[in-house]
Amino acid sequence: MTPITSLAGRTLAVFGLGGSGLATALALQAGGARPIVWDDSAAKVEEARGRGLDAQPLDKLDWSGIAALVLSPGVPLTHPEPHWTAKLARSHGVEIVGDIELFARERRAVAPEAPFIAITGTNGKSTTTALIAHLFAAAGRDVQLGGNIGTAILSLEPPSPARVHVIECSSFQIDLAPTIDPSVAVLLNVTEDHLDRHGTMEAYAAIKARLAAGARTAIVGVDDDWTRAIADRLESEGHRVVRISVLRRLPDGVYAEGETIVRAKGGVPEPVASLAGIGSLRGAHNAQNACAAFAAASAAGLSPAEIQAGMASFPGLAHRMQQVGRRGPVLFVNDSKATNADAAAKALASFDTMFWIAGGKPKTGGIAALEGFFPKIVKAYLIGAATEEFAATLEGKVPFVRAGTIANAVELAAADAGASGLAEPVVLLSPACASFDQFRNFEERGKAFEAAVKAVVGEE
């Protein structure tokens, strides 16, 4: 836990008692503050009371004595309209913050030189965050991994000069962190997302840019118009910016050329790392993640040799292009996180010959946008509610079978791939669909795939 000592003796309102909200309240209490907590869920309120917290309706408080309202990032701050607690706080002139902001303030108060690497972007931020943390762990450093990736930031050990915090930040979290100031920030990309919470693309991009603007060193992808403009603006304002790209050579920055990561300065390129043979970092999207991780780790003190060694041992994230087994030459890859066609495209672009398991609860547009990858698909195995829609799209273009379930699809695909005679056939689960027709979430779907692969591989 990171006790919030910088607010000792103050009273704060906390709304939202999920994982991060409860951790925030306990961290405030441990640091000597008085959190008054509430949630729309009666069960969560009772859980908080059972942990010794003061739970009472926030609309009954005397707000004149409240130092701040701490909101859970899942609670709307501005759109589609501010939550009632946000309206109440603003009406009393009380600032509204989140747990990332509390961490940033505590770090400034107790260990301002503590390494703090914060990562954001519309796509790729979880893999990049996990990769950066792995690089430091592999180099023998004390590293704390958390934020939007799963572990609440205030559940982590406190900041110290010898401890590296690697934190994934969503736009919701950044919106609640007005003074966030990481030593290194990574902004991977900005594409349309979360407009229901931010209103416009301009507002969404500005929130992402705020993370980079507060950093000592800003690592910024320049492969989309939004981030390219952000990098140019930050540099013109005097910020230290390191650009990254997988689409073009940069005179200054870090870019990928095939499987080689290149660092350039003053127009002079220097190969600094290789992704050859690293299955967990296949594909152009992972090359961008690796470039960002290299730039961030370098800025925070790791050597190219340490970074290369760490990349070689990176296992990848569960359910994201995760290699889960082999049977002879056949490689089984779990990409259950691919819940739409755009996400599935990244996996389909990463392999040459695939036996593709797809389907689930379909998204608008289906898989028509993936037609350019159809020549690489030897056969498709359709599951779930999308079966007939996907069959109509594939008809005459890709051989397919209605497999029904993941277990049946894996058995059929493994047999076909093993008999194909190909050098490295890939059985790929990249559903391009939500999971909710057969599973509670994509994690459960991915675990079902892994179990089916284990059953097949165990037959050898």
TrEMBL record:
<dbReference type="InterPro" id="IPR005762">
    <property type="entry name" value="MurD"/>
</dbReference>
<keyword id="KW-0961">Cell wall biogenesis/degradation</keyword>
<keyword id="KW-0067">ATP-binding</keyword>
<comment type="similarity">
    <text>Belongs to the MurCDEF family.</text>
</comment>
<dbReference type="GO" id="GO:0008764">
    <property type="term" value="F:UDP-N-acetylmuramoylalanine-D-glutamate ligase activity"/>
</dbReference>
<comment type="function">
    <text>Cell wall formation. Catalyzes the addition of glutamate to the nucleotide precursor UDP-N-acetylmuramoyl-L-alanine (UMA).</text>
</comment>
<keyword id="KW-0573">Peptidoglycan synthesis</keyword>
<dbReference type="InterPro" id="IPR013221">
    <property type="entry name" value="Mur_ligase_cen"/>
</dbReference>
<keyword id="KW-0131">Cell cycle</keyword>
<dbReference type="Pfam" id="PF08245">
    <property type="entry name" value="Mur_ligase_M"/>
</dbReference>
<feature type="domain" description="Mur ligase central">
    <location>
        <begin position="119"/>
        <end position="297"/>
    </location>
</feature>
<dbReference type="InterPro" id="IPR036565">
    <property type="entry name" value="Mur-like_cat_sf"/>
</dbReference>
<comment type="pathway">
    <text>Cell wall biogenesis; peptidoglycan biosynthesis.</text>
</comment>
<protein>
    <recommendedName>
        <fullName>UDP-N-acetylmuramoylalanine--D-glutamate ligase</fullName>
        <ecNumber>6.3.2.9</ecNumber>
    </recommendedName>
</protein>
<keyword id="KW-0133">Cell shape</keyword>
<keyword id="KW-0963">Cytoplasm</keyword>
<keyword id="KW-0547">Nucleotide-binding</keyword>
<dbReference type="InterPro" id="IPR036615">
    <property type="entry name" value="Mur_ligase_C_dom_sf"/>
</dbReference>
<keyword id="KW-0132">Cell division</keyword>
<keyword id="KW-0436">Ligase</keyword>
<feature type="binding site">
    <location>
        <begin position="121"/>
        <end position="127"/>
    </location>
    <ligand>
        <name>ATP</name>
    </ligand>
</feature>
